[in-house]
Amino acid sequence: MNPAVDNGFNARVRRDEPMSRHTSWHVGGPAEVFFTPRDREDLTAFLRELPAGIPIHWIGLGSNLLVRDGGLPGVVVSTRGTLDVLERVGETSVRGGAGVSCARIARQCIKWGLGPAEFFAGIPGTLGGALAMNAGAFGGETWQHVTSVLTVDRRGTLQQRSPADYHIGYRQVSAPVPEEWFIEAQLSFERRAGTHAEEVKKLLERRRASQPIGEWSCGSVFTNPPNDHAARLIEACGLKGFRIGDASVSQKHANFFINHGKASAADLERLITHVRERVLAEYGIALNPEVRIVGVP
After folding, report:
1. Do 66 and 132 share a domain, yes or no?
2. Which of 15, 47, 78 is at the close of a domain?
3. CATH number of the structural domain spanning residue 265
4. Nearest 5 degrees, angle CA 111-CA 39-CA 46?
5. What is the pLDDT of residues 128-170, one digit of tens each?
């Protein structure tokens, strides 16, 4: 398959783009077509040009994503560096684009005296990804603050939706229709007196002390099972440091898997499978991956 793209988009289209350049694990084969829109209007026009049936994948900062070595057929839409509006639209309301980083949301809300938004500093991705999976950190979750979202479908049609349109759970969000993606959200917070920058600093220090920050990882690999922690179960199986190829279970936090520089996506996927099988055999608990695994082996 070779998706035809109108010449008007050529400056923003790359073909056979290595996804290893765009994922926090630094692995992944080529995207058939990789598109970065200028703005919302450019995005909707591009989507309208795509032939029906061509797969569409979305990527922000590339965390929480494992792209297999065979790459991604179809089109990848990147929101990195675009669709990143962040503005205050009311006394306690904020409008954010899918491409704005969660860390920026935390910093800006502190400046505006709004909260609690500190937990966003612990999410290593964009608002679009946080909406798609109800990402959270330090006890906070994205959809606790969502009052409305703006979505787009593959025909380029925009739709305003409310949280009531979605089934929202722990690290999962079920959309009312398939192939409809988040491009903006309105978030609600509370007025907070004084500065809370020190709180963010403490949370990030806690994160640095407990997680392998600075190494090539995707964030948490598995969601936590009810009343337990994936990291505790993995560590209890003696798997800290366990290695396949150049991929290993972090010595610092067992729910983080590290690419030491030369791991393939296949190494990481085999590591995920092995850890899951060991925990299931030892404790009868099937860990659910938090990381999305996509593409051709």
Report:
1. no
2. 78
3. 3.90.78.10
4. 150
5. 999 999 999 989 999 999 999 999 999 999 999 999 999 999 9
Q: Is 290 a known active-site residue?
A: yes
By the 8 A CB rule, do 192 and 106 touch? no
91-118 residue pLDDT tens: 999 999 999 999 999 999 989 999 999 9
Catalytic residue among 14, 104, 171, 270: 171
Let me know if residue 1 belongs to a domain. no
Structure tokens of 100?
A: 């704005």
Strand 65-67 versus strand 292-294 pairing type: parallel
Catalytic residue among 17, 184, 269, 290: 290
Residues forming beta bridges with residue 163, ordered by sequence position: none
Residue 274: CB partners within 8 Å, gap ≥ 6? 242, 244
In this structure, is residue 196 part of a structural domain? no
Q: Is 217 a catalytic residue?
A: no
Residue numbers of the domain that contains 64: 7-78
Per the structure, the count of domains in the chain is: 3
Hey, what are 264's tokens? Answer: 């393939």
101 catalytic residue (yes or no): no
